[in-house]
Amino acid sequence: MNVLITGGTGSIGSRLAIPLVRRGDTVVAFDVRSEPHFDSDEFRHVNMVVSDLGDGRSLVEAVRSYRIDSIFHLGAVLSANAEESPRDAWRANMDGTANLLEAARQSSAKRVIFSSTLATYGAGVPDPLVEDAPQWPVSLYGVTKVAGERLGAYYHHRFGVDFRGIRFPAVIAPRGSGGGASAYVSAVFEQSVLKGEYDFYVNRTTRAPMMYIADAVRALLELHDAPAGNLRRSVYNLGGITPSAEELATSIKSRLPEVRITYTPDPVRTAIVESWPCQIDDSAARQDWNCTATWDLERITRNIVHVLRHDSANQ
After folding, report:
1. Percentage of residues in the chain with pLDDT exceeding 70?
2. From 200's CA, which of 100, 189, 218, 258 has a CA 20 to 30 Å away?
3. Is 70 exposed, middle or buried (0-12, 13-18, 19+ CB in 10 A)?
4. Interior CA angle at 92 toward 29 and 19, to 5°?
């Protein structure tokens, strides 16, 4: 199978490429940067297309020239960066998604896996969050993802594109922090190991749903491979764990007791994170394609601290 990953050198995309290469797929990473966020021997087998999602012609050419069968659409400007640069976010997240779906329609790439977010829901939704709760996001990132979900559903019904999506919580990964409002969930581990301190930009009581990178990659692969007849929805919610910032700090300090943790909340980013629901009803994903998060906070902490220490020692 020939697979295109937009955002293919990002934190999730570069890690998703590895199991695809291992199972024998031809993988193409489409991104504005050529260096992978997560490098490995397997990633050296990935084909690179360095371009912008806003360039529809480049997307069509990549899909056609590599005879792409399936697309994982992970490329986007994330929440905090989108608030700073709304025009860039619109070009990447809105124009980019429209360009990608049109590239799929014009080619043999009939399956699109879309990375959405629980940030598509705004404040005041039920907790636990049900799948069909109203989607009135407070961030531009969430707005663009709601629109992407609706556009994908349109391309499915109008043109037969097999559009499937996941509304992810925050994703934790070693060296995984990026431009999202939830970047602290990875940054606290990185800075604690590498610098011995971290200053949270959210309140110590702020909670957010989050998931380890291994669970996120596995979910993308499982949704892609699920028989179409099993799927009752086009986009699924996924949950994970919901620790507070203080609970993250406590878990890290259990392994790194000398770490200094402080809190200086940023009103904009804190408001975005605290608008998200904490308890997620993801029963549909469990029932339709048997998706369940398996990593708890203790296991996540143990693994990330080990990986970051190993990487630091070998630099």
Report:
1. 97
2. 218
3. buried
4. 25
- Among residues 141, 155, 184, 201, the one annotated as catalytic is 141
Distance set, CA 29 to CA 15, 55, 177 (Å): 11, 15, 20
Which two tokens mark 234? 């086009």
In 172-188, which positions are buried (b, 16+ CB within 10 angstroms) versus exposed (e)?
A: bbbbbbbbbbbbbbbbb
Kindly report, residue by residue over 121-146, the tens digit of the pLDDT.
887 888 889 899 999 998 899 999 99
* C-alpha to C-alpha distance for 114 and 112, rounded to whole angstroms: 6
- Give per-residue burial for 253-271: e unless 16+ CB within 10 Å, then b: eebbeebebebebeeebbe
For this structure, is 141 an active site residue?
yes
CA distances for 308 relative to 12, 188, 249, 313, angstroms: 17, 12, 16, 9
Per-residue exposure over 207-221, b if at least 16 CB sit within 10 Å of its own CB, e if not: bbbbbbbbbbbbbbb
Tell me, yes or no, if the pTM score tops 0.90. Answer: yes
* 249-300 residue pLDDT tens: 999 999 999 999 999 999 988 988 888 888 899 999 999 999 988 999 999 9
